[in-house]
């Protein structure tokens, strides 16, 4: 019985710490294919340096594929055109390798395992200052079929939009 009490004394503070760390995260948003099938989830939290993100998904093409924040919080299949263009409040070009870029929706490439699954935690630049993408029509995370070349405007030659999630801010 004493061992259980000691274990509880160790575990309860960890649970409380985990709940405190989870505060500020938005709810899990489903990542869906064009037919509406859920293939994963994403959560975001706004910080002064941009969005922090936790993403888990499966059923994606293995290798590097483009991922961007889009300007409209809608994910109507099959092609997710409803998500609008990349989030670009400063009117920049696309990609960190573009001399006229990069816009704030550029997230680079997502590395997907050989089994088609990915789990990623993304942290923003703590020294940065980025406006919120959550305006009147929200924001969406869009996953593309191919690698983003990080220089070609408007989407880095990253191909079709194959998955999408409406992003929801935390409180």
From TrEMBL:
It comes from the Bacteria. CDD domains: Cu-Zn_Superoxide_Dismutase. Residues 40-166 form the Superoxide dismutase copper/zinc binding domain. Belongs to the Cu-Zn superoxide dismutase family. It comes from Sphingomonas brevis. The keyword Ligase does not apply. This is Superoxide dismutase family protein. Residues 1-22 form the signal peptide. Keywords: Signal.
């Amino acid at each position: 019985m004493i061992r259980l009490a000691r274990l509880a004394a160790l575990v309860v503070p960890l649970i409380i710490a985990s709940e405190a760390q989870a505060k500020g995260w938005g709810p899990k948003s489903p990542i869906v294919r064009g037919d509406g099938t859920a293939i994963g989830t994403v959560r975001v939290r706004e910080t002064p340096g941009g969005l922090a993100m936790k993403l888990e998904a499966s059923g994606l093409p293995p290798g590097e594929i483009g991922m961007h924040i889009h300007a409209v919080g809608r994910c109507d299949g099959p092609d997710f055109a409803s998500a609008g263009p990349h989030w670009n409040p400063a009117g920049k070009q696309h990609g960190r390798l573009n001399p006229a870029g990069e816009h704030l929706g550029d997230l680079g490439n997502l590395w997907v395992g050989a089994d088609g699954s990915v789990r990623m935690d993304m942290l923003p630049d703590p020294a940065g200052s980025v406006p919120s993408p959550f305006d009147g029509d929200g924001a969406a995370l869009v996953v593309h079929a191919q690698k983003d070349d990080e220089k070609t405007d408007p989407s880095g030659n990253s191909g079709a939009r194959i998955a999408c999630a409406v992003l929801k801010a935390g409180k």
